[in-house]
Amino acid sequence: MLQHLSLNIEETAAVILFGVGFTILLLHRNLIKKIMGMNVMDTATYLFLASKGYITGRAVPIVVDGVQEVEAYINPVPSGLVLTGIVVSVSTTALMLSLTIRLYERYHSLDLDEILIMAKEEEQT
Amino acid sequence: MSRRKDNYETSRWLKFKTWVDGETDPLSSGMDPTEVIPESRMRERRKDLARRKAYDEELTRIAAHHEGKTEIMKARGIRYFQKFYKVMSVILCLGIILVLLWTVSALPVTGNAGNPANNEVAARYIEKGLQETGAVNIVTGMILDYRAFDTFGESCVLFIASCCVLVLLRLDADSKNESIKKMIAESDDRHFEPKDDIILQKCACVLVPVIMIFGIYIVLNGHLSPGGGFSGGAVLGSGLILYLTAYGYRKMSRLFTEKVYRRTTLCALTFYCLAKSYSFFTGANHLESGIPLGTPGAILSSGLILPLNICVGLVVACTMYVFYTLFRKGGM
Amino acid sequence: MSFVQNFPFFSIIIAMFSGIVSSVLDGKKARNLSLVMIAVTTALSAGTLAFCLGTGESYTFMMGHFPAPWGNEIRAGVLEGVTAVFFGVIMFLAVIGGLEHTAEDVEEKKLNLFYIMIDLMLSSLLALVYTNDLFTAYVFVEINTIAGCGLIMIRQKGRSMSAAIRYMIMSQLGSGLFLIGLSILYDVTGHLLMSPAKESVEMLVAEGSYRLPLLVIMAVIGVGLAIKSGLYPFHYWIPDTYGYATPTASAVLSGLVSKGYIFLLIKIFYRVLGYENLVSSQMANVLYVFGIVGMVMGSLHAIHETDTRRMTAYSSVAQIGYIYMGIGLGTSYGMVAAVFHIFTHSATKALLFISAVGLYEVSGDKKDYVSLRGAGYRNPLAGIGFTVGSLSMVGFPMLSGFISKLLFATSALESPHKMLPTLIVLAVSTTLNAVYFLRLVITLYSRRRPEDAPIPETVPRKSWHLRLAILCFIGVNLVLGLASQPIVQAITDGLAMFG
User: Rounded to whole angstroms, how far apart are CA atoms C286 and B140?
Assistant: First the structure.
């Protein structure tokens, strides 16, 4: 198993980062760190995808000098998926940051538990 | 342990260390914002401090009130719970990582040409992509022609995210609501803006044209070289942001207002939507699209890809700039 | 190729286009455009359904000039048609029913943004229903999530914003898992379109290679979408989210958004991973266990709740549990029951949220049991609507809830190992449902006591929108309850076309 992991070193790094990001997003109390965790998780997935598209010794999929053999280029599909994914994660990050700004202005805290408690109190008064 | 230098307190290392620790702000000596904090903001800050203090007092009061064993037990319980929580989160993290590592160890080896992912799909993109889409950059050809529906959805993700940010952060200047007026006054950060910073302006003078031209180059060459609408648009947006920070809102508003933003996004997305609808419709009904692909490698080639890249570039540039202005002061 | 076959594509594009155009319209125009758009797309979906029923076959539609493994594709069949029509109807009624409250809760200048969210949400739901491509599904899941978050936080109250960020966090966890699942799936199959991916999955299963990655893919995609649809242990975001959003948003979120994800999950199970593989790999049993735990626990939480809107939200947790239990039964009957319960639940929950609005209006906008005492007399139609919804959730004959419980019970008889627990949990859950829903109905029709705090005098709004919506929702419930046979038949046919 370890030998296989060392051959798949990029994927190994990617899934470790994915686990770390996932846990931070799920369990950390600070909103900004949660957002960071989300970005780590997304980026880890892109690393995973990008390494899946790579083929040793081949070039980026941009046609040079009219060479169109399959043997010349890496797999273009994962690159396209990563491009799409990056835009999605930029959008969600912007949305979550703006929500955080509004919540901070209202409750002067970044701690999600504290925010929830204060929101509850505010509702009751 | 080595001896401390005599002038340790003034050394750069200490400054750096305190900065790393987040104790000092290196810019704080350069800009002194305390003089110009608006009264409303100060009041808010004081209220905030008072509230914090009240919260702490409340906690100590409760602690004092319920003296005795049960309270200590409770406090201990909370502490145990926090420890338990930390341990559990580490275990969860390790669990996810282990399962995924186990999976990775069963996956095909990276970089091997015989992997299942390198099948006839990728082969056709590479072998026929140039003839079928006219794009030299195969990835661009793939995302804007073969799999264009995904990419259209992706532009819509950006569009709807910018709508959500508008909902949250836009403050309407002519609003009658008192609280919104107060928020506008508070979020007006022009007091903190370095006024007519000569260094910044001169640098921007040199850099902005270069950045803009580079951005336009990336957008226009999306089908020929690495790049495309999204990356070029991000570069263009950063150029706009640099111009804004150097010259302020007043100069910027001559060029770029909310109206311009709305119209640009509307036009770009409408064109995108119509163009792609046309190509989906003709494709599904097996009609000729009648759009010439041009000579591969020329700037005016590859059919709809170039105009689509321009549209995407415009949308992304505007959205980036709008995100920045909204995050800073809630409007353009 | 007949012209009708273009309709699914038209409906998605029209919904998106009206969202884009709404960004420059003012609130009222955006609202009208949105209503017209929903009506038009529903009509188009009905056309698709009629076409598919007529030919008795499903078809794929190329999105572009390139055929299956290369270009994007959408697919329409009977089940897709039924679901799309149904989603359109529920969306239309939810928007109509909450019209006044939306105008009140949202700042006037941001009203058009609310309708942009509605438009794009409908387009993403339609795309999730029709899609035949996994990555398209991911992109539209994200649109759906962001639009849902927008609908929650557009009220700009503290509670709804904290609910929105919780929703966003949980959804992002789900999306992350879904995306990594897709990446692994792409790595072992090399395809993103559903049909070729299924072929290679079948080949891998026959060869016996990549057994572990396939299991992990099932688990990761299943858990990801379960988090997003609010299955029991991942339900923490539901009560706040449904409880503090504007009524239209509550109805849409509880009725449609979570159902869109479940529909996608069913589609992926059938059309990519293979339902037999799901059953043989014990993943179905895991979903089954989560489902039955959710059925009981959701109801217990609902009994504890004093805020009636949060109570209704907790009952959603229980109902989602029903759906996952049906998926987990591992038989095609169970799946039919689960799909039927998707319809039942979205019609009934939307009815409950919308008619509850009418009751809160006449109770000084309070949501606890004491204030609602006698509200059924003060707003008769809303009271009837709420009663019908509650009875349907409990499983009163003639209403849709009865049919879905009947379907669950009969399908349980088909799977011998799971028969006993299913029937017991169905009985327990029905009793618990009855406890909290009938308690509220009795409260609605009991006389106010003299010691109750007086209700502030509010002029009851004579809004025909709300009444129309409640009446139509009751109608939908009765149709599902009385004319269930053709619908169940259509679902069975549609699932057969999936396979």
Answer: 42
Return the minimum-mean-pLDDT range out of B171-185, C100-114, C256-270: B171-185
pLDDT band at C101 (very low <50, low <70, confident <90, very high): confident
Domain annotation covers residue B26: no
Task: Tell me, yes or no, whether B87 and B227 share the same domain.
Answer: no
**Overall domain count for chain B:** 2
- Using pLDDT thresholds of 50, 70 and 90, give the confidence band for residue B33: very low
Structure tokens at C63: 């999105």
| CB nearest C179 (choices: A34, A45, A99) | A45
Task: With CB atoms and an 8 Å threshold, state whether B111 touches A84.
Answer: no
DSSP category for residue B300: S
- Residue B68 included in any domain: yes
Q: At what angle do helices C78-97 and C7-22 cross, to 10 degrees?
A: 30
Of A41, A85, A119, the CB nearest to C159: A119
Could you count the other beta carbons within 10 Å of the beta carbon of residue B82?
A: 10
pLDDT-above-70 percentage for chain C: 97
Per-residue pLDDT at C119 exceeds 60: yes
Best CA proximity match to C31, nearest among C16, C19, C40: C19
Domain boundary among B88, B104, B120: B104
In this structure, of A61-65, C361-365, C392-396, the range with the lowest mean pLDDT score is: C361-365
Put simply, the answer to whether C158 touches A91 (Cβ < 8 Å) is no
Classify burial at C236, counting beta carbons within 10 Å of its beta carbon; exposed 0-12, middle 13-18, buried 19 or more.
middle
C 303-342 residues inside an 8 A Cβ radius of B = none
The model's pLDDT over B288-324, given as tens digits with 9 standing for 90+, comes to 877 777 777 777 877 888 999 999 999 999 999 989 9
pTM as predicted: 0.89
| Minimum mean pLDDT range among B271-285, C351-365, C417-431 | C351-365
Domain membership of residue B86 as a residue range: 36-104
| For testing contact with chain A, the best of B83, B84, B138 (most A CBs within 10 A) | B138
Q: Could you tell me which of C367, C353, C177 has the C-alpha nearest to residue C255? A: C353
Calpha distance B279→B302 (Å, rounded)? 13
Asked if A117 has any chain B CB less than 8 Å from its own CB, the reply is no
Domains in chain A and their CATH numbers?
Answer: 2-124 (1.10.287.3510)
Instruction: Give the residue on A whose Cα is nearest the Cα of B127.
Output: A68
Q: Is the dihedral of CA B44, B45, B47, B52 positive or negative?
A: positive
Alpha-carbon gap: A110 to the closest alpha carbon of chain B (Å): 13
Q: Would you say residue B208 has pLDDT above 80?
A: yes
CA distance B279 to C65: 7
Is residue C398 within 8 A of residue C478, CB to CB? The reply is yes
Name all chains with 3 or more CB-CB pairs below 8 Å to chain A. B, C
Contacts of B98 (CB under 8 A, 6+ apart): none
CB-neighbour burial class of residue B2 (10 A; exposed 0-12, middle 13-18, buried 19+): exposed
Residue with tokens 């207002």: B257
Identity of the residue in C162, C180, C186 whose CB atom sits nearest the CB atom of A103: C162
Query: With pLDDT > 90 as the criterion, what percentage of chain A qualifies?
Result: 38
Is B95 in CB contact (< 8 Å) with chain C?
A: no
Q: How far is C309 from chain A (nearest CA, A)?
A: 14
Cβ atoms B221, B299 nearer than 8 A: yes
B173 shares contact with chain C (CB less than 8 Å): no
Q: Which of residues 270-289 of B touch C (CB under 8 A)?
A: 270, 273, 277, 279-286, 289
Domain boundaries, chain C: 282-499
**pLDDT > 80? residue B190:** no
Of B106, B157, B280, the CB nearest to C143: B157
To the nearest 10°, the Cα dihedral for C439, C440, C445, C449?
A: 90
Smallest Cα distance from C152 to chain A, Å: 12
